[in-house]
Amino acid sequence: DVKVTQSSRYLVKRTGEKVFLECVQDMDHENMFWYRQDPGLGLRLIYFSYDVKMKEKGDIPEGYSVSREKKERFSLILESASTNQTSMYLCASRTGANTEAFFGQGTRLTVV
Amino acid sequence: ILNVEQSPQSLHVQEGDSTNFTCSFPSSNFYALHWYRWETAKSPEALFVMTLNGDEKKKGRISATLNTKEGYSYLYIKGSQPEDSATYLCARDTGFQKLVFGTGTRLLVSP
To answer: What is the mean pLDDT of residues A11-37?
Structure first.
């Protein structure tokens, strides 16, 4: 059973904290993604990675950074959490173009 | 159409009703169109990845069609069941790793 696993389902952090969201996939996929989902806005791409140590900005990268030191692990970092980063965060992976994406279960982050 | 648009935004039907949703997308530089089902408290799961104009795909009571020339796809659910309640997402595959998602159609099926 293929899996994308996110480290936390729910997270509450304080404004200004550095936050790490971890994602691990066991399918040997080259491509990994971080999305956030907000009501009425759909899934918006924050960052993606197409290989180890390679990353590309998505549509809303401001306030975020990422790390991909190993093929199976893709981390999203909120350098200094703010209340407008309260959201549902979804990690995904896939082999390449025209292939389905596999998603983690999501992390609901609340910044207070 | 610059982005992916889905309609309706939400839908409430009775068990046994058949229903359909629309996904509109830019018709130029088409690579693929994805449909995902996202149930509450679960991960989004792929239903279909469609690449050819005129494609029709089916999985149980759910089917989808694709028109790449005019830039739309329909998702049909025949005889809706309460377990079909979910948000249905479509996404345009850019061919460069990225998927561009619509805002989804939230379906509620009442017993």
So the answer is: 96
